[in-house]
Amino acid sequence: MSADYYTDDVHGHHEYLDLGDFALASGFTLPGARLAYQTAGTLDEARDNAILLPHMYSGTAGFMQAFIGEDRPLDPTKYFFILPAQLGDGFSSSPSNTPAPFNGGAFPAVAISDDVRAQHRLVTEHFGIERLVMVSGWSMGGQQTLEWAVRYPDLLERAVPFAATSTNPDHCTVFCDLHMDALRSDPAYDGGFYAASTDVHVGLRRHAQAFALMGASSHMYRGEVWRELGFSSRDGFVQGFLQAYFAPMDPGNLLAQAAKWKSSDVSSGHGGDVTAALGSITAKVTDVAFTGDLFFPPEDVRADAERIPGATFEEIGSVWGHFTMFNLREADTAEIDAVYAAALAG
Amino acid sequence: MSADYYTDDVHGHHEYLDLGDFALASGFTLPGARLAYQTAGTLDEARDNAILLPHMYSGTAGFMQAFIGEDRPLDPTKYFFILPAQLGDGFSSSPSNTPAPFNGGAFPAVAISDDVRAQHRLVTEHFGIERLVMVSGWSMGGQQTLEWAVRYPDLLERAVPFAATSTNPDHCTVFCDLHMDALRSDPAYDGGFYAASTDVHVGLRRHAQAFALMGASSHMYRGEVWRELGFSSRDGFVQGFLQAYFAPMDPGNLLAQAAKWKSSDVSSGHGGDVTAALGSITAKVTDVAFTGDLFFPPEDVRADAERIPGATFEEIGSVWGHFTMFNLREADTAEIDAVYAAALAG
Prior knowledge:
Number of helices of chain A: 11
Shape of chain A: globular
Largest interface: A-B, 31 and 30 residues
Strand content of chain A: 5-15%
Distance between the termini of chain A: 44 Å
Oligomer: homodimer
Radius of gyration of chain A: 19 Å
Mean pLDDT of chain A: 97
Order of helices and strands of chain A: HEEEEHEHEHHHHHHEHEH
Number of strands of chain A: 8
Strand order of the largest sheet of chain A: 1-2-4-3-5-6-7-8
């Protein structure tokens, strides 16, 4: 890996829950597993003011800090925020930080349900919380949010997934296959046993190109909205934004996360019946889609919302498509804050 | 190359126009260049019943034969059809058939305008035609159609581009960069100097995955419309349709075509002023977009049509997106025939 990337200096202070020998959905037991997390605000004595904010693909626990602020809906003077790191993020157990023989390309397959079960232990056993005010996240954070709502219906009052669906849309799976292959396509990837992640920079660049294609809408490119980020050309944006973003990351970590994304499915406890799984949700759900999202199109998010009892469907219109939650436009962030304000008022 | 792919047995009978030492837009002169073509129907004595039908990326001259038929709008008992092969298609001068030192990876860059100038010689010098009834094609065939309408306004009465634009949309250029890199990503590509195209099968598969992602709409995958083609799984469709389609092709030929696609621009004769170029068109234009087309979205096609004097904009709604013109549904073909009927009646 890039030597100084997966550090608290870059990503903020993490704490860790020891998961011990953690049994994965795959049947594999990961020895010495750990769950990294961050917090914000203070848990009150009644332990009833906690909000869980899992993060998206390629992110780390701190990502959702961007939505927390005094005088904002996610107010740390009012709520206690738990920001768990995904398995595979580089802080929680990951290909890049797990000792041999389970390191790198030998890291076992993990699932969204593994994240959620680990987070459940953090919430209930470590913090002693019996009920969360809300679970919310974007993209893979939204996949975890939906898994929470199905798996632990008594444990959360509200669920607000952004740009995520109950199972991965088939078109999005074709995309996952493409960007996962992009990382592996670099001969330096070597089955996941490279000496340094920077050796795999060609694979990381190829993977970035896939996100340049699918992460933003055609409207964004048509309007050259990348100029708002200070770039002077389309290619400069692809290189300076997407390639630069992914360059320091560990390809094996990205692949561990992507495999979870691709195989996400909330119905494992309902015999594969997604409609039954969604129908069992008791939390108040606000299911949010982004206009022009090429990963999780509004049609797919809406189809979920229609199967969740009492759910509200919201579509946020932005030129950024799936990347709307990167806070690239103040108006996008304001719309997301408005969704949180309405959800927490309900 | 796949030894028996670029043959008349597979693609129908070709004839050839010797272009001699052909000066390319790049400034390079390609020695001993040739233009392959097919024909259908009979040129009448007045030489005023000819229709030119250039083909799309990855196709060959014969592709547009699928739209020609008695009792159909493109009726060979009424019209004479000229179906030119693109430079780089494997029959016209291409990386795969040009002798050293201009073979393979050393084949010079060609442009849409080179195709159109070569076709102009075929139409005017070889066939002695002074005016075409229509020029029409899909995708890169549409790019050539628009180039014809701008470059030779006196030579065509009608232009009917399907799913193509005057310059490549920026989002589509990000896609071209991705699928071109996919071919080159295979170490066996070796700068274009592989022994056999089948050696580059991994690159060809990777390139096919990009077309699986972008060629069809998310609606197609959502509805599992691939079942109509006889496949029993999404992955079976990707492998059996896309990978199988591209597998026998020559990667260098695909790259020669893709570079033209990416750099397409009708404004070269108008100092880079696309609006002026489109405004100079005198042919009757029917500019056709496909709903859900991720290469050339309807918004971009419409923006062209609004700048072409008297142009009609049509949008054909199909779940197949850009692939609508592959004739995968009878309803799609019927809609395309209807566009041709209306255009030729006007």
